[in-house]
Amino acid sequence: MKGLEIAEKYYETFGAEMMRTEFPELEEIVAVGLMGSGSECYGYDDDTSRDHDFEPGFILFLPPEEVVDRRTAFRLERAYGKLPDEFMGLKRNKDVSYDTGRHGVIRTADFFRSKVGDPEGTLSLEAWMKIPENYLLEATNGKLFRDDVGTVRDIRARLAYFPEDVRLKKLAGALMLAEQASNYNYERQLSRGDTAAAQLAIYEYVKNVISVCFLLEKRYKPYYKWVFRALNDLPHFAVLREDLEYLISNGNGIAETVEKRSKIRSINARLGDEIRRQALSDYDGLHLDSFAYCVNGKIKDPSVRNLHMMAAGE
User: What are phi and psi of 279, to 5 degrees?
Assistant: First the structure.
């Protein structure tokens, strides 16, 4: 069973009873769920995940102090700490000196402030362009088990995905960087015989192509160690995983560079197909920088459109 399911069952078995019997006045105003940085919040946890920071637990999201004061919050923390130490073969981490902050009692405002810099998830265009995608994903992944008032649900809805102009700006930048890394820097380094630098260029190409894939699918890109796993979930681009892995996993001998150039053309063609399908460009070539200019031109807000192409880059 996946960690998110275990967390929900742990709450249903012990947490819900704790709230009902010890804190009935809080039941309807404290949201409960699990989201954040743990692999279980993405649904990516496996046997390896269980070697650290993996335990049965959930988050209790508290409203502001004027609604739930510090004394009550402390009582709730104590009660949470007394929940059973073991559940479904997993042991809870009881060493408070090694608190990961992934479970337990937290103010809703503090949680979202830690992820996106704003307690209510109300972001300026500048903030939308600068916050790393994995933090936005950590604020919106996982699952809410209960939220009667809807405060956490509403914030997550505000953060569900980039405003369209921001998506397009980030997409234009990623396309430009992918082109620069492949057809320009990769080829120049090969001509110099610097295969190590050529491989770094390939890494940059793959990294930015992955960004393009997620942006075209309108999904947040996770932290780098999960991106290849997450590619499997992209309807239009899961098929690219094998080629992208080949590019970063093989050297730059004569035969390999021939194959890499072929795969780059194939990848670019697939990206182009989706860009045209979304009516972001009618360019029918393979140069990603040409797509980038077209995409940037689709941005409606002139203050965003006229920013440097890389203004929303990571």
Answer: 60, 40
